Amino acid sequence: MWKMKKWMISLLAMLTIFMLAGCRTSQTKTKKSVDKTTTSTQQKKVTPLKSSTPTVFIHGYGGTVNSFGGMIQRLEKAGETKKELVITVEADGTLQVEGQLNQEKVNPSVQVLFAANQDNEWNQTEWIYTVLKYLKQAGADQVNLVGHSMGGVSSLRYLTTYGQPTDASNVQRLIAIGAPFNDFTDTATEQTVDELLQNGPSQQSSRYTDYRSGVTNIPVTTTFLLIAGKADDQATSDGTVPLTSALAPYALLKAHGNQVTEQIFTGQQAQHSQLHENSAVDKAVIKFLWR
């Protein structure tokens, strides 16, 4: 009897050991599988899109080399772009070019400077056309545009005026940062941001009506990011450009069939002249252009 009990105890002990070993093996396999998935996900997140398509940075009214100089430098330091060209447009429309496009997949950047930096948007539109014709001849079939303030205004006017001319680079993406598309009309007391995005501005300036007349010239393949700023949650502008003006073309572009998104930044660095120095705006630019 005692021998039988001893045998049963030994059998139970052996079964327990086998069960524990099986559980431990199962847990180890599951853990390895999870780790492998996590690593794969992390690799996807950090893979940037690299191409030879230039991104053209256009400053605002009264802008200088410093207007976008800081952003380009930060993006270059982060390995997102390589600054290859500085193009200065003289008052007579002639170009002074420093550097060259190398046709390498480095997300090249081109900084455009207007010598007559307080001229009107119609002249700036012609100058943008001249720059894009030069870039076409240099081998860039398409470009991205990033415009701050009046640089964004003139970039959209270029598209509504010329669309997609065969002698100039096609505009693939356009980012407008704090651009007064509806002049300085603030419709915040008349409509919410959601209503603006759905229906357009309740009051429309002559600048906006020009866009409305020329929107059919814009290629539907051009995608847009409209960036606006406000000092705090209660503010309705970035201190210079009303929120409703910076986002004014959203409904117009959407109705035309263009892909368009908007982002609103809040805080001290969302002030008009600080938007292009804002690290959060840098991230939005990177995501829209190269992710």
From TrEMBL:
InterPro entries: AB_hydrolase_fold, DUF915_hydro-like. Gene3D superfamilies: alpha/beta hydrolase. This is Alpha/beta hydrolase. The keyword Signal applies. The keyword Signal applies. It comes from the Bacteria. Residues 1-21 form the signal peptide. It comes from Enterococcus hermanniensis. Keywords: Signal.
